[in-house]
Amino acid sequence: MKTKMLLQTAALLLLSTGVAYAGGSKHGKKHWTCDDCSVECLKNPYAKGCPDICKSPDCQASCDKCPASCKQHPGEPGCPEICKDIKCQTCSDCTPECKKNPADVTCPDICKDIKCFSCDDCSAECLINPQGKGCPATCADLNCNVCDKFPKDCPATCKDNPNNAEKCRPECKSVPEKCLLPPVEEPKVTEEEKPAGPVRFVADVGYFKQTDPADYVFGRVGAEWSPFAAGSQFEHVSFLGMIGVAPQVKGDDGDDALMLDVFANYNWKAGDVDGWVGLGLGGWITSGDVNDDSGDSDLDVMANVGARVYGDPKAFNVSAFLEIRSAVDEFDGLAEYGRFGGGLRFKF
């Protein structure tokens, strides 16, 4: 009898232990498994009555079970907890609003990663002032070139003339100064390199000797014209027109004369020496009331050669020259009636 009672007591103890163990596996926290989480608890593990284990990422649904709206805003109420796991997030889930304010609790954490941003996400204003209103914080770290946001061919004149359409196109009006094209600088040239003007003023003073005999002093003024551009085959050719007087100062023949002369010059340079050779026609105009041909009015043929002795060839200078002139009808008496002389030429 006693033995039977002992067996019954042992059986009751084993049965109680089994019931207790069964209850603990279902209701004890340390024995809950993910299988004990309902679909509703997996979707909203913070709901009343859901076991704590349902909050574990291991129990959440897989990333592909996260709805599109929750991928963009995993912090919204009702979104599965797994949506907050950065392994389930991609940069494509970052909305423009979340890029502007990635710290918002509803936005994916991946939106805080600089890899999700490009220079296209930053306006020119945000690149200039990353702390500006609505600017993503990452704009300060992207090292973007703000000039890429503007036209590449805006002229330097926009700096001082942004409202002048002729000097600054409308689309260039707000371009930062550092993004403008560099100003066009005129090439610097020395005085020696400066081109001479196409017209320069010239004055001659000098002396003629005629063996007939007659001696003259003369003075004339005029202008030299250089019509050919530098680099052309005729760049050294110029034309000179002059008017002057040649009063007779000594001699038995000849007479005071008015000179109207035209020359074609070839301007030469030999080392540091430069000058000209000229050929021309001129009028030697007198009163005409003389007894010999050497003193009457005639058309003269002229030749001269000169070289610079002072000054800059492209600025004021002085040259010394020799000249011969003879009437066209007196070539056979050149030695007797020709006028040989020289003088100084002043070029301005």
How would you explain this protein's 3D organization?
The protein has helices at residues 2-27, 39-43, 68-72, 96-100, 124-128, 334-337, and strands at residues 199-210, 214-225, 237-246, 248-251, 257-270, 273-285, 298-311, 317-327, 339-347. It is of the alpha+beta class. Strands 1-2-3-5-6-7-8-9 form an eight-stranded antiparallel β-barrel. Strand 1 and strand 2 form a beta hairpin. The longest helix is centred in the first third of the chain and has 26 residues, at 2-27. The radius of gyration is 54 Å and the shape is rod-shaped.
Order of helices and strands: HHHHHEEEEEEEEHE
Please report which band the strand proportion falls in: under 5%, 5-15%, 15-25%, 25-35%, 35-45% or over 45%.
Answer: 25-35%
What structural class is derived from the secondary structure elements?
Answer: alpha+beta
Strand order of the largest sheet: 1-2-3-5-6-7-8-9
Q: Nearest-angstrom radius of gyration? A: 54 Å
The percentage helix is 10-25%
- Helical stretch tally: 6
Low-pLDDT segments, ≥5 res: 13-29
Q: What gap, in angstroms, lies between the N and C termini?
A: 153 Å
Largest sheet descriptor: 8 strands, antiparallel, barrel
Q: Per the principal axes of the C-alpha atoms, what is the gross shape?
A: rod-shaped
What do the pLDDT scores average to?
84
Number of strands: 9
